Amino acid sequence: MRTQSLAWLVLATVSAKPKPLDGRIAAVTGGSRGLGRAVVDELLRQGCSTVIACARNVDSLAELENVVAVTADVRTTEGRRAFVDAIATTGGLDILVNNVGTNVRGPTTELDEGDYRAVLETNLDAAVFLCRDCKAMLEERSGCVVNIGSISGVCCDHTGVAYAVSKAGLDHLTRYLACEWGPCQVRVNSVDPWFIRTELTEPLLDDADFRAAVEARTPLRRVGEPSDVSQAVAYLCSAPYVTGQILCVDGGLTCNGFEYQKPSSSNRENDIAGGMGGF
Predict the structure, then answer these.
(1) pLDDT tens, 170-193?
(2) Nearest Cα to 246, choosing from 156, 119, 146?
């Protein structure tokens, strides 16, 4: 009987332990699928009482409790206004996650001006103006912003100049606002992923040669999972003395330099002939 009572006491203690984001109210753009959906799920797991999530199609969010689904395209002024109005009706805002993004791949010489504007409006402009419009609510609760960038904004990965420019801009927006809003106790950080397994990247990763090249260049030798990103976002939401940081969730890609793999032959003459005898 005593053992059973102790077991119930332990269970009650564990259940009562506060979660890092208990009672927080969060807003996530592009929250219906991929990384955005993973972030919504993780923030709820970490204790958020309400998550306001927007997308152009929110059907997949209907099953979730404590989620306010908003049909909105935040690339547009009207979409951002609808999203911000929905946030305001919840009574406050602790966390803003600017996740929505798009890309048009191809060489710069073939870049269409309309495609370029669409990528920047989605990836960068939406974040700039949502930060502007949500700042007062975030300041009231000493809240934070987490921008979802990309290693494309840190280094060249040949995924398209529009995407790279937009993500580099998002990283510097992060640094700039961290300094401007720090005195208001509003923190701003960015999570910059490398290849993450989502429905959008599956067509690329289904190419065995392409995936092998990605994994070979990544020190951890694997592509990332959505949870790798969502857990990083949750950490930054709960880290009270961290601001202005660009957290690369990339398996080590961006710190990887040159690595020479010696031929399998043990013939040193072949190594020297290849110009790499000293490696």
Answers:
(1) 999 999 999 999 999 999 999 999
(2) 146
CATH code, domain with 115: 3.40.50.720
Judge residue 111's burial from the number of C-beta atoms within 10 Å of its C-beta, 0-12 exposed, 13-18 middle, 19 or more buried: middle
Residue 6 lies in a domain: no
Please report whether residue 180 resides in a domain.
yes
Q: Which of 116, 163, 176, 260 is catalytic?
A: 163
Tokens standing for 275?
């110009």
Q: pTM to 2 decimals?
A: 0.88
Note the pLDDT tens digit of each residue in 136-176: 999 999 999 999 999 999 999 898 999 999 999 999 999 99
What are 165's two structure tokens? 């420019």
Q: How many domains does the chain have?
A: 1
Phi-psi region of 10 (alpha: psi -120 to 50; beta: other; left: phi over 0): alpha
- d(CA 181, CA 269) in angstroms, rounded, equals 61
- Does residue 260 carry a catalytic annotation? no
Structural domain that includes position 64: 21-273
Expressed in percent and rounded to 5, the helix, strand and coil fractions of the chain are 50, 15, 40
